Structure formats: C-alpha cells, structure tokens
TrEMBL record:
UniProt entry keywords in alphabetical sequence: Hydrolase
Name of the featured protein: Hydrolase
A family per Pfam: Hydrolase_3
A GO CC annotation given for this chain: cytosol
PANTHER family noted in UniProt: PHOSPHATASE YKRA-RELATED, PHOSPHOSERINE PHOSPHATASE
Gene3D superfamilies: 3.30.1240.10, HAD superfamily/HAD-like (3.40.50.1000)
Entry keyword Signal: no
Record keyword Iron-sulfur present: no
InterPro entries cross-referenced by the UniProt entry: Cof (IPR000150), HAD-like_sf (IPR036412), HAD_sf (IPR023214)
An MF annotation (GO) of this entry: magnesium ion binding
C-alpha cells in the first residue's frame, strides 16, 4: 500500500449539502479504503455541531474542523486548536453592530447567532446545519468561549474589506451560497485545512507523501496541492482542479467511488 491516510472534504465532495445525501457508493469507497488499512479522516469547514447528519452515516478516525482550526480524534478529543484572538473577536463584534452586518460565531461544538437572526437561520437551514444553533442577543458568549470562525452577512462589504485590510492576521473567504448579499467566513489568516492535516500527520508519524485528499472548493486548494494525490470533484471549478493531480466525476455521479477505485487499482499495479 503506497498511501496510508485519506482526507475528505464534506460539502460538495462527500456530502450533497442541499439534499442531505451521501451516496451509497461513497460509503462503499470509504469501506474499501479501510479494508486496505487506510486511516480515513474528515477535513471540513464545518464545526462539530454541524456534522450530526453526516455522522449518522459515517464516522472518521480524525476530524479537521472549521477549516483546520479545530482538530479532534475519533473520540472527539482535542488534538490541536487555533482560535481567533479575543481582541479581534471583540473588534469584529463592534464592526458588525455598527454596520448592521449579520454575524454568527462557531465555537467548536456550538454556533451562536449575534445579529440578523432570521437571515442567518435560513442560511443554516439551507446548509442543513441547525443543530446546536443558538441566539445570543447579549452578544457575550465569546467572552467565555473560544471563537474559531465568524460568518458575516452583508449587502455592502466595503467596510468589511477595510476592516480586513487593517487586520492582516485574519482572512475572509466568500461562501458560495444563495444569500441576499455577500456571505463570508472569517478565520485566522494562517489557518487552513492543510495546517490541521499536518497536526494529524505528525501525530500518526506520517507525511504528505502518505496522503490522499479529496475536495471541490477554494478552501481545499492547499491540501489538494500538498497531498501526494489530490483529487478534485467533477463539480469543482477549473481553478480548483488545476491544483489537483486529477479530477473525478461529480459528487452526484459516484465521484468518490470512481476516484477511490482508480487509486486502489493503480496501487496494486
């Protein structure tokens, strides 16, 4: 066996977000990898509380959550964590209050809406992520708990752009969902799935040469590029595909199964 560990993005890769489907063929592919001795891991932008529907069908050996900022083992014990600094969280809360931006925070195992409850609620409903979703009109939960990610919703993002320019230690990623305006993820600038994966590789005594990664979006680019085999889904953009070793069929057309079958057949040769 040439490779030893595989990481799967969830939305648009393993999981069909809009209809809550994981194809049976994808679950079969994961079983195929495990039978060959692979460690199988999740690498997602989701926090743990937004994994419930997925975990009803498949469990993983490790979890790279919230785009690499919160890493857990199979028993959900913390391996590494990279929260946003409290001072930056406070500044973001003030910005969103002043500019009437929608604001939501991921705290690892819970999600709290601060501003624009219903737009944020409908966003979460569309993504099938209503578990452990709360409303904090006092905007105080972050004072006692670590923030790993903010979601900001706005029709005019100019002030947000200026805020990000003044805080280069943060980055924003546009979320490609149907919203009335712009929706952004905000993280520490040096956090991404590849950083979370490296914490697991170190723990397992492995390297990127042992690694296969599957993804479809811009937040998967770094891990697709660093993996010995990076697999882009057929529904990925041409830009994302350019960072992968090859692309498979879409998540709606047995993409995971077709890629895993191809890899395992080539490893036997």
């Amino acid at each position: 066996m040439k490779h030893k560990i595989a990481f799967f993005d969830m939305d648009g890769t393993l999981y069909q977000t809009e209809n809550d489907i994981i194809q049976d063929s994808a679950l079969e592919a994961i079983d195929m990898l495990r039978k060959e001795g692979y460690t199988v891991c999740a690498a997602t932008g989701r926090p743990l509380n937004q994994m419930k529907l997925i975990l009803e069908r498949v469990h993983f050996d490790y979890y790279v959550l919230i785009n690499g900022s919160y890493i857990l083992d199979k028993d959900f014990n913390e391996i590494s964590a990279y929260p946003i600094k409290k001072e930056n969280v406070e500044k973001l809360v003030k910005l969103c209050a002043d500019e009437k931006y929608g604001l939501m925070f991921h705290f690892g195992d819970a999600t709290y809406i601060y501003n624009d409850f219903y737009p944020m609620y409908y966003f979460c409903k569309y993504c099938n992520v209503l578990d452990s979703l709360f409303y904090d009109p006092n905007q105080a939960f972050h004072k006692r708990h670590r923030v790993f990610n903010a979601v900001v919703l706005t029709k005019d993002d100019q002030k947000l752009k200026h805020f990000m320019e003044d805080h280069p230690e943060l980055r924003k990623d546009l979320i490609n969902v149907k919203t009335d305006g712009f929706c952004y993820d905000i993280f520490n600038a040096d956090n991404d799935k590849a950083k979370g994966i490296e914490a697991i590789l170190e723990k397992e005594g492995l390297t990127w040469k042992d690694t296969i990664c599957f993804g479809d979006s811009t937040n998967d680019i770094h891990m697709l590029e660093k993996a010995d085999i990076g697999v882009a889904m057929g529904n990925a953009s041409d830009y994302v595909k350019s960072f992968a070793n090859f692309s498979t069929t879409t998540t709606y057309d047995n993409g995971i199964y077709n890629a895993v079958k191809k890899i395992l057949e080539e490893e036997k040769d």
